[in-house]
Amino acid sequence: MLPKLSRPSPLALRRDVLASLVVFLVAVPLCVGVAVASGVPAELGLITGIVGGLVVGCLPGSSLQVSGPAAGLTVLVHEAVQQFGLASLGAIVLAAGVLQIVFGALRWGRWFRAISVAVVQGMLAGIGLILILGQVYAMADADQPDSGLGKIAGLPGLAAHVVGSTGALSAFAVGAGTLALLVLWKWMPAKVRMVPGPLAAIALATIATAALGLPVAKVEVHGLLESVQPPGLGELGGLAQLSVIGTVLAFTLIASAESLFSAAAVDRMSDGPRTDYDKELMAQGAGNAVCGVLGALPMTAVIVRSAANVQAGARTKLSRVLHGFWLLLFAALLPAALGVVPLAALAGVLVHAGAKLVPVRQLVPLWREHRGEAVILGVTAVAIVVTNMFEGVLLGLLLAVVKTAWETSHVHLDVRELTGGRLIVSVTGNATFLRLPKILDALEALPRDTPVELDLTELRHLDHACRTALDNWAAQHNGSDGPTPSFQPAVAAAGRPASGH
């Protein structure tokens, strides 16, 4: 049973209603644009937005962030639809939602915050680059190649197509005009900026296309109920395929990470209640489960809508619930309005959204202060463009783990000479296989005819590879009758006299 919404004060109620209208106006073009870019009917984007408002909006977790279809999942959804078909999308989204619920129930929500920020930023940057490359083709009403490298290689041919075709040139002009307006929108007068930029850009592009009679493609309208395709037993049975399991895991990881990072950003923007990450993960899972049953797009918490909600003065969950209600009214009463929207204009909106996913301004400071993080970000983004989403993210996570292991495995060797010519080598820090070459180089540089004792009592960690190598080196250097190194962790040895062997 859904929890009851707290009764707001009259002032808070007025602010929530106004904020819900602002979020609704921001959400409409994004819901439709994300759906079209994902290769599914536009109505499925609206359904996901409706579920994000009416279902997730009522659930505990975060109070002010708003959920719906996100540009960050566009590339992955498009790949899934191309590979498995639209009918299987619902089953994949349903499975991802169930996984999110399970993870939240196991209180794993906080662990998603442990994912390297560089990997997440690289993932979003890669998605943004793929989105930009793909939607540039849509701006010209042209078919886009399947792979990232194919999109890049096809750009010269696309340019020639735009120059040589009146229809492609008209469409590209509409898309480019939409993009230009969005870029310039922040410099418009404050009264003009009361209207969300994407909505104004789509409206002006639609009016210009109709007034000039431009031969450009429009959004195809199928009807809200006709677009609902619940997964059947065949699609649910297909979840056992290894490739489908990988897609489900990718949906779960990316949707969860994006939602929880968005929650952290919203918490910084407002002074309201803090997010309960486990409950929010379960709420996102419930929303995706419902979207899966309806055969709609997957959802995440969307920072663009969430920021608009906070900036519009929202105080309670009511604003995000009402935004879902307005979406439902629009989809039920004005579906034909979608049929006059040029696809090139939606592509321009998504090119702008994709550009926002690439952290251009942060790259230079990140390179100066944390060069390793910048490398991980760049490699993750490029890998996603060159290969695919799942492999790119896995490579990024692997690099983050290797970088962390390298940075935490610092080791220091101190050589002391005692009376009689004996040498004591004290090893401190974390001795792992990554630092084994350094350790062995230092030991092998010692005089071969001098007895050496290894003091390992100050080591915090000694892995098996290092232990074996040190035992072998001591046996070779000192002979079988000489002293062998012993390991007693520094933390465990605290308060007891250290012994060097």
In short:
With 501 residues, the protein is mainly α.
Describe the structure.
With 501 residues, this protein is mainly α. Helix content is 62%, strand content 6%. It has helices at 10-37, 42-54, 74-84, 86-105, 117-139, 148-153, 155-164, 166-184, 197-212, 224-227, 233-237, 242-269, 277-294, 303-311, 318-333, 343-357, 360-369, 371-386, 389-408, 436-444, 464-478; strands at 67-68, 300-301, 411-417, 423-431, 452-455, 459-462. The strands form two sheets. Strands 3, 4, 5 and 6 form a four-stranded mixed β-sheet that branches. A two-stranded antiparallel ribbon has the order 1-2.
Strand content: 5-15%
Estimated structural class: mainly alpha
Main beta sheet strand tally, sense and closure: 4 strands, mixed
Distance between the termini: 66 Å
- Write down the Rg: 28 Å
Total count of helical runs of at least 4 residues: 21
The average pLDDT score comes to 83
Quantity of strands, as a count: 6
Task: Give the low-pLDDT segments.
Answer: 488-501
List strands and helices in order, with pairings.
Elements: H1 10-37, H2 42-54, E1 67-68, H3 74-84, H4 86-105, H5 117-139, H6 148-153, H7 155-164, H8 166-184, H9 197-212, H10 224-227, H11 233-237, H12 242-269, H13 277-294, E2 300-301, H14 303-311, H15 318-333, H16 343-357, H17 360-369, H18 371-386, H19 389-408, E3 411-417, E4 423-431, H20 436-444, E5 452-455, E6 459-462, H21 464-478
